[in-house]
Amino acid sequence: ASIDGISGKVVSNECKFQVQDGKISMNLYTNASETQVMKPGEEMEATIAVHNISGEGDLSNTVITLKLPDGIKYKSGVINDTTSSEGETSDGITYNEETNTITANIGTLDIQKYITLKLEITEVQDNVSMMAEAKADNTDTHYSNIIEYSIEKASLEVSELTSSPRYVKESQNIEYKFSITNVGQSIVKNINIKDELPEDLI
User: Least CB-packed of 17, 125, 140, 181 within 10 Å?
Assistant: First the structure.
């Protein structure tokens, strides 16, 4: 790089780096949009698409690892040659709960493998990110793309209670109203409302 100035051209130092051919291509994606705000209790399905791009034949002892961020836990997973459920197996997938890391030993990678994982949001975190790693015999560590999500606690506001008419006599009906507003960014489902009535109301 260089800069042209009044006093002439100033040249920076030279930086050299080596680019090596990759042997494994990985794409990490989920069934949730990266703009979607997640909340505790929700589930997501993550898929790691692994492809052999070495051009040198099969890759032996191929292992994929995915360290989950705080707030996301592993539920189950399968390995398959395609994205369909036919021929899928859970053999080779292990989960270390202490480190929150999923390991998928897919053995010989001939063309492609798909690892499908069911995950659960368990805790509130501002932002979380995930990236998978792959390693096989005679290869360097390869990395997938990074995906990021926001997690927030459901936030609702309940309005003041209003009634009509304001005063009633015995055996008269009374109608009261209130509203609930979602003041968070995530969609809130399965809302249950509980209201304890005074003894004289039925």
Answer: 17
